[in-house]
């Protein structure tokens, strides 16, 4: 990809399903590039599953050469074991960003929802409907990839608002 392009990889990390979405940040909109899910098998060991997530994301980064990675901030589950597994999958994303020398930004789920839908407590279906409205030709087959696209779009919107603020100040 050309260096002047602003490509953002959004990631919705999970041990079973890690969603990813790639958008290009343009001056007044976001251009859809691609999206998908990296799935791991529960029968495999934790190390194998984390490695599959790393290798899958690495292939995506190598293919598209994003300038930035965006990810949702961690939230506490009622199940501590689930929270720890989510933290390990998130750690893989941070490791990839460090190894590929990419900046990474975190956004709370409410911030992502508010930026995309206008309501911080939007449900998964509202997120998917808004993405399909923004990109009418897209077909979303996974909530995980929809969440990843949402966090990429959120980062693009947040970056633009910061640039606008700095240029006016």
Structure description:
There is one protein chain. The protein is α/β, with parallel strands linked by helices and 169 residues long. The protein has a single domain, classed as 2-Layer Sandwich (Nucleotidyltransferase, domain 5). It is built from five helices and five strands. It has a five-stranded mixed sheet with strand order 3-2-1-4-5, with helices on both faces. Strand 1 (7-12) and strand 2 form a beta hairpin. Helix 1 (46-64) runs parallel beside helix 2 (80-99), helix 3 (109-117) packs across helix 5 and helix 4 packs across helix 5 (143-168). The chain is globular. The termini are far apart. The model is unreliable at 162-169 (pLDDT under 50).
- The count of strands amounts to 5
Might you state the CATH topology name?
Nucleotidyltransferase, domain 5
Compute the number of structural domains. 1
CATH class: Alpha Beta
Overall mean confidence score, pLDDT: 89
Into which percent range does the helicity of residues fall?
Answer: 40-55%
CATH structural architecture: 2-Layer Sandwich
Instruction: Choose one word for the global shape.
Output: globular
CATH homologous superfamily grouping: Ribonuclease H-like superfamily/Ribonuclease H
Looking across the biggest beta sheet, what order are the strands in?
Answer: 3-2-1-4-5
Q: What is the tally of helical segments? A: 5
Radius of gyration: 15 Å
């Amino acid at each position: 990809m050309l260096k002047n392009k602003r490509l953002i990889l959004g990631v919705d990390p999970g041990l079973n399903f890690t969603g990813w979405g790639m958008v290009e940040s343009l001056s007044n909109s976001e251009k859809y590039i691609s999206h998908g899910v990296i799935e791991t098998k529960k029968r495999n060991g934790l190390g194998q599953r984390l490695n599959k997530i790393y290798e899958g994301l690495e292939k995506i980064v190598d293919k598209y050469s994003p300038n930035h990675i965006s990810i949702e901030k961690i939230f506490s589950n009622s199940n501590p074991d689930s929270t720890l597994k989510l933290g390990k999958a998130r750690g893989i994303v941070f490791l990839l960003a460090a190894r590929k020398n990419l900046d990474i930004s975190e956004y709370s789920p409410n911030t992502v929802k508010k930026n995309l839908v206008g309501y911080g407590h939007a449900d998964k279906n509202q997120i998917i409907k808004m993405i399909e409205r923004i990109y009418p030709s897209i077909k979303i087959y996974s909530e995980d990839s929809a969440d990843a696209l949402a966090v990429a779009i959120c980062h693009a919107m947040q970056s633009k608002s910061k640039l606008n603020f700095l240029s006016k100040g």
